[in-house]
Amino acid sequence: MELQENMIFSITEKFIPNFSKAQTLRIIQLNEKTVKIEMDEAKSRGAFPIEQFKGLVRDGSLILSESNSLLSEVAVVASEGTAS
């Protein structure tokens, strides 16, 4: 999975660092080494090494939100419309 800014993930009970009892988190910034996140209704942000974040997705601690699929489809349709 290719990570992108503004991706939203649902948080499962496997996600141990969930001190705020958030339901979702969003990627706010990323580079080749680090993923910076913001949890819903949280006033603070956090960061993970990119491989650790991908591991949380692989083990089911974080699940890509369905809304990301819809946003991706809209972006593809929009880009196809401008290419014509």
Keywords:
alpha+beta, 5-stranded antiparallel beta sheet, 5 strands
Describe this structure in words.
This protein has 84 residues and is an alpha+beta fold. The protein has one domain. The mean pLDDT is 82.
Shape: globular
Q: How are strands sequenced across the largest beta sheet?
A: 4-3-2-1-5
How far is the first residue's CA from the last residue's CA?
29 Å
Major beta sheet, specifics? 5 strands, antiparallel
Q: Kindly provide the radius of gyration, computed on alpha-carbon positions and rounded to a whole number of angstroms.
A: 14 Å
- Whole-number count of domains: 1
**Helix proportion of residues, in percent?**
25-40%
Series of secondary-structure elements, N-terminal to C-terminal: EEEEHEH
Number of strands: 5
Structural class: alpha+beta
Number of contiguous helices: 2
Tell me what portion of residues adopts beta-strand conformation: 25-35%
Give the mean pLDDT. Answer: 82
Q: Short description, anyone?
A:
Helix content is 32%, strand content 30%. It is an alpha+beta fold and 84 residues long.
How are the SSEs placed, and which strands pair?
Layout (H helix, E strand, L loop, with lengths): L7 E4 L12 E7 L3 E6 L5 E5 H9 L3 E3 L1 H18 L1
Antiparallel strand pairs: 1-2, 1-5, 2-3, 3-4
